[in-house]
């Protein structure tokens, strides 16, 4: 009975097309094989993917959009279909990749069909059960990760981190950067090519868009200044242009048209304009209301002068004449920024309205708080920039550009970082570059050459060197691992995150400082900051930060009933509205607390406050 039920179930294999059941067959595995055979022969589209799920006894056919598909070389009877003859023709460009697809040598599989395959990474690993061979073992990784070198020697978590850093790095992002008006852009002064590259790196021609520089790095501590993620930079190297970049920001505005024939006007606003910023704010504008090129600008300076029509209808004056009072709508430089006006563009939009774009440049020299990262997810924040004479140096007089904490490599298991240090050091001496593609067949052979090259040039085989302390001149007792690493400067710079103010705008409701750098806001002082001050016994500083510099207000409190009173300026006495007493005390409280008291009152709950004598 069980056998009959099993046979019946076997005959009822469901076929699902893009997740919807369309038919049933007797033998699902044979049907899936027949679909694959027809696909390889070109009878049906190569975009079709089929998989047989034995546990569910279902055949899933997928033809929908958005599937991630990977090319694999087909293996039949224990042999790859990409024969040496085809490989030779492919190398000589007699045939191309599409030819192999049409002839059923290579096929694309999606994630579901991969479940029915046994894939060999290299031809020597093919067995009778193998169904496919990888085109390249490095294709396991995506584009962003594939351009990295020696990724198979790093911990898994570092891959996604380094991929993020690559997207954040400054470099030569476009050759026509001088003609572009991007909202913000970062351009490295002296970008260099890495000396260890990978096949995806070269395939994408990323040497045309370098994103970093080759730093001489020593794994050494420096009087505790490079603990954890902190790094030390050589001041002389920074002065010579190491990590130096330009930060571009574009400000734009246009003369918009409004219903009723009114429109904006780009010009120097007259003093009668509503919201006039003062004569000094417009002093750097030209006669047309637009700032000139190469003008030094600071925060608050007007870049584009503009007046807009009033939001509401004109008001009648005393003589009955309607007066149109325009408002100032000028574009000013952001809070906390400065620089030089790099270029000005005046054009027209598709709606025939004049548009003005002003690009401001700021030279960003590496400073404390700037972030650097290698291609292996080893990020670091600059903690100290040391004079060259105080930096460690080798017997040849080589001074490292960057000192990295030696504890940051073993704990994060970024062995690829150390391999790159060794490889680029060897490449610098031999005058050649190396290939660091993931799972490269000749990768280990190249790594063995590193030690030979270093020994031939009189260096230690493992990259260790004797260094001398720049402060004392004494030789370090231990040898220090020194090499060259390709470092990226990330766009997280101290200058773009710096936020400070002494006074400025406040919120209407709470009267506390506004939030955010763009609105001229203050830094948020939260519970954890408060706890730090409590732990240090700085209670008066808490009062200053959370009351005096925030939303301090004064109220009158009745000494008899504890209710909030007010001051009668006609009689020149304080009055309690509850009991009518004039015996009130003036108290300083937070405006947020005052709001809370009024809200409780609105719920018909009376609050009494008791005053203590000082």
Question: Could you explain the architecture of this structure?
Answer:
With 614 residues, the chain is of the alpha+beta class. The chain has 5 domains: 2-140, Hypothetical Protein Ta0175, Chain: A, domain 2; 151-244 and 368-489, Dna-directed Rna Polymerase Ii 140kd Polypeptide, Chain: B, Domain 6 (Beta Barrel), CATH 2.40.270; 246-364, Beta Barrel (OB fold (Dihydrolipoamide Acetyltransferase, E2P)), CATH 2.40.50.150; 499-548, Alpha-Beta Complex (DCoH-like); 552-602, RNA polymerase alpha subunit dimerisation domain (DCoH-like, Alpha-Beta Complex), CATH 3.90.1800.10. 21% of the residues lie in helices and 27% in strands. The protein contains 14 helices and 36 strands. A 6-stranded mixed beta barrel has the order 12-28-13-26-25-32. Strands 5, 6, 7, 8 and 9 form a 5-stranded mixed sheet that branches. It has a 5-stranded antiparallel sheet with strand order 10-14-24-23-16, with no helix packed on it. A hairpin with a 5-residue loop joins β19 and β20. α9 crosses α10. The model is unreliable at 1-9 (pLDDT under 50).
């Amino acid at each position: 009975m069980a056998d009959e039920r099993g046979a019946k179930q076997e005959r009822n294999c469901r076929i699902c097309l893009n997740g919807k059941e369309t038919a049933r067959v007797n033998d699902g595995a044979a049907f899936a094989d027949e679909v694959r055979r027809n696909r390889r022969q070109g009878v049906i589209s190569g975009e079709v993917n089929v998989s047989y799920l034995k546990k569910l006894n279902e055949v899933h056919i997928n033809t929908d959009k958005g599937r991630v598909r990977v090319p694999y070389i087909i293996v039949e009877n224990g042999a790859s279909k990409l024969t040496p003859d085809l490989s030779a023709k492919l190398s000589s460009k007699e045939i191309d990749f599409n030819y192999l697809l049409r002839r059923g040598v290579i096929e694309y599989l999606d994630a579901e069909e991969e479940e029915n395959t046994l894939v060999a990474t290299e031809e020597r690993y093919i067995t009778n059960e193998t169904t496919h061979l990888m085109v390249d073992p490095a294709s396991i990784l995506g584009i962003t990760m594939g351009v990295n070198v020696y990724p198979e020697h790093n911990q898994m978590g570092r891959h996604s981190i380094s991929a993020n850093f690559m997207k954040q790095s400054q470099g030569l992002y476009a050759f026509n950067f001088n003609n572009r008006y991007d909202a913000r852009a970062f351009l490295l002064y002296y970008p260099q090519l890495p000396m260890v590259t990978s096949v995806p790196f070269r395939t994408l021609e990323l040497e045309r868009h370098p994103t970093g520089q080759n730093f001489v790095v020593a794994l050494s501590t420096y009087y505790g200044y490079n603990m954890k993620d902190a790094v030390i930079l050589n001041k002389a190297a920074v002065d010579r242009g190491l990590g130096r970049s330009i930060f571009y920001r574009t400000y734009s505005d246009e003369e918009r048209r409004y219903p009723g024939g009114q429109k904006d006007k780009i010009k120097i606003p007259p003093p009668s304009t509503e919201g006039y910023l003062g004569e000094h704010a417009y002093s750097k504008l030209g006669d047309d209301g637009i700032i000139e090129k190469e003008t030094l600008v600071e925060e608050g300076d007007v870049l584009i002068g503009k007046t807009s029509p009033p939001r509401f209808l004109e008001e009648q004056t005393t003589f009955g004449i309607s007066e149109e009072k325009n408002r100032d709508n000028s574009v000013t430089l952001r809070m906390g920024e400065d620089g030089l006006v790099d270029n000005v563009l005046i054009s027209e939009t598709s709606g025939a309205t004049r548009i003005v774009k002003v690009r401001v440049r700021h030279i960003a020299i590496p400073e404390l708080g700037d972030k650097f990262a290698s291609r292996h997810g080893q990020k670091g924040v600059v903690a100290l920039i040391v004079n060259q004479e105080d930096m460690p140096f080798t017997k040849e007089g080589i001074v490292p550009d960057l000192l990295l904490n030696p504890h940051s490599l073993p704990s994060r298991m970024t062995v690829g970082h150390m391999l790159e240090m060794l490889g680029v050091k060897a490449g610098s001496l031999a005058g050649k570059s190396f290939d660091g593609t993931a799972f490269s067949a000749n990768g280990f052979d190249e790594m063995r050459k590193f030690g030979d090259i270093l020994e031939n040039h009189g260096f230690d085989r493992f990259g260790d060197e004797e260094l001398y302390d720049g402060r004392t001149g004494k030789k370090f007792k231990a040898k220090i691992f020194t090499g060259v690493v390709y470092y990226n400067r990330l766009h997280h710079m101290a200058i773009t995150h710096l936020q400070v103010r002494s006074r400025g705008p406040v919120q209407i409701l709470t009267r506390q400082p506004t939030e955010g750098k763009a609105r001229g806001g203050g830094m948020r002082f939260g519970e954890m900051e408060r706890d730090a001050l409590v732990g240090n016994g700085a209670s008066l500083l808490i009062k200053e930060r959370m009351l005096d510099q925030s939303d301090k207000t004064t109220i009158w409190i009745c000494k008899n009933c504890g209710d909030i009173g007010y001051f009668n300026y006609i009689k020149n006495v304080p009055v309690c509205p509850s009991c009518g007493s004039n015996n009130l005390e003036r108290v300083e409280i937070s405006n947020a607390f005052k709001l809370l008291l009024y809200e409780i009152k609105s719920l018909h709950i009376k609050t009494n406050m008791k005053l203590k004598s000082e």
